[in-house]
Amino acid sequence: MPIGIVLLVFGWIFLRGPKRLDRLRIDYRGVVIFMGGMFVFMLGLNHIAEPTTFFARPLAVVFLIIGIALVWLFVRHENTSSHPILDTTLLKSKPFLAANLFNLLLGATSFGVFSFIPLYAISVYELSALGSGMILTPRSAGGIATAAVTSFFLTRWGYRKPMIWGLIIGSVTTVVLGQGLPPWNVVDWVGGKVAFLGSLMLIAGIGVGMIMPPSNNACIELMPEKVATITGLRGMFRTVGGVLGISLITMILHLSSNPVTGFRIAFTTFGLGMILGVPLILMTPDGREGR
Question: Which CATH superfamily is domain 87-290 in?
Answer without folding.
Answer: MFS general substrate transporter like domains (1.20.1250.20)
